[in-house]
User: What shape does this take?
Amino acid sequence: MKTIQLIGGFIVFILVADLNRAVRSDDVSAMPGLFENSFDTSSPAVAPPWSMRPWMWEDDVNTAEAVWDLVDGCHDHDLPLGAILIDSPWSTRYNNFRFDEKRYPNPRKMIDSLHARDVRLVLWMTNFINTPDSLADAPGDAEDLYSVGKANGYFVNDGAPIRWWKGSGAMVDYTNPAAVAWWHRIMDRTLSLGVDGWKMDGSAEMFVLTPRKTKRGTLTLRDYMDLYYRDTLHYSRSCKSDFVTMVRSVDIANTHSDQAHAPFDAAPLTWVGDQRHSWKDKGLDEAIRSSFRALALDYPSVSSDSGGYQTASKPQVGMPRLLYLRWAQWNAMTPFFLIGGHDEHRSWKFDPEFFQIFRRFMWLHQELVPFFYSQHVQASLREGKLMHPGPGKHEYLLGDSLLVGVMSNEEPRREIVFPDGDWLNYWDNRVAYHGGETVTVDVPENRSPIFVRLGSIIPLDVVNNAVGHGSQASKGWRTLDIYPAKQSSSAVLWDTRQFPPNAFRDRSFVGVNPLEVGLEIHMESGPVRDTILRVWQPQAPRAVRVDETPLDKRGNVADWEASERAWWYDDVDQRLWIRLAGSHQASIAIDN
Assistant: This one.
């Protein structure tokens, strides 16, 4: 079975049958080179906490000035930023891993300066080496890696070049240990500078268009893609333990196939390819279709380019305002908030109302990083899921705590089907729903459909009042957003300050037990943390005790924020606030 696609002006025939094998390839014995006996392929790869903060990128200029415009713009407008992605062209030849210093002077200094601003750097790459005369939009240099690779047998199909969207070249043969070692030495040119991640573009998928000959024999497309994605992640993490790769999960618009791309164990962060700035016609509609197919295939983390990657019309008309806002609100409620592509994506260049809404969702995403990360680690341990489909159309759940609906059109309302449990409107906790109900909800443009299940315990990283979950006095403290249910509930939390995670050092447990006239909250194990408990309850408590010792009450938020250990009740928000400095293990009794 074949489908036809136009990539970079070239007609591509894709054998869908070759993608129909399972996304997971557990037969490690069939893997060559570094994979003969090295890696566990049975669990999803975990993304480091930094990579779950918001990313920004542009693809119209590609210069150091454009990078610093984004970084400084976020700083000047008080927006959180975790990473900058530089797409191609950034190197002197494609995949020679040597910076074009006319575009990016002194790359080591640039990377060090970004790190000093607490911003990571991710670069585009593929598995192709082009022939000497095939430059596409790269500037070129005197080095001829293609001839070296061909002479030494480092490419598939004896180095016979094929056309791809960046010119003509050959693919690295990951079944050849000598080729892999050579390829790693080339990658070291950039890895040695301290880069933090790769955007692995979907070039390995073109392997199916070739005779598929390798040193190991004829491979399937599935086997070759697994080698590409796995080798890149594992080698890069051997150089830097919190390295991340951004990979495709499902990409229906660009491949005409709804099958899996990167294997789970080499897919810490996934996106669904290049969509247009449109609601339909390979725009938001295709991003939604691909994303929910990826969730059905059990990818733990799925996202897309907010607003789409490229224009949908000629002449270019820019980014439709409401489309961008709705798309960004959706991606803010995924572990991977990717902002950028062609045309204007800088939120501060839009109208003031748009910017304030966008800013709030960027900060909401930033605050949820501890929740995303804890759920991701648990999913890798096969204890729950990070993202999974909900019962209604274009709905998904984050863990078992949050229900999110995607706004797929310009209507200010949509239908929500509620899963089992009791639910609150995330923006107004006075509005409740019950499992099994189907409700049409109003969704003004400053909100998105988000609901929280009673029984949830959601760790947050709050540093300001942008969302309403605290203030600057919360900075450096772990905030636990707790929604008690009629029955006991619990959560496993992982410390975002360490990666890779260590179960004996970085894991803590929180349990909530309802009583006849109150509530008990238990915190056990894990690192010592200053902790804020933000407990939803409709009435003020009579008293709060910690390990049987009465906790002091404060009459206003300012006095409470100045305290190391105290409680305060907000009648307007119906929220009990508890501060516990230096908490490790504690039993909190709330007497109502």
User: Anything to note?
Assistant: The radius of gyration is 25 Å. The domain at 457-591 is CATH 2.60.40.1180 (Immunoglobulin-like). The chain has a mean pLDDT of 92. Residues 284 and 408 are 7 Å apart (CA to CA).
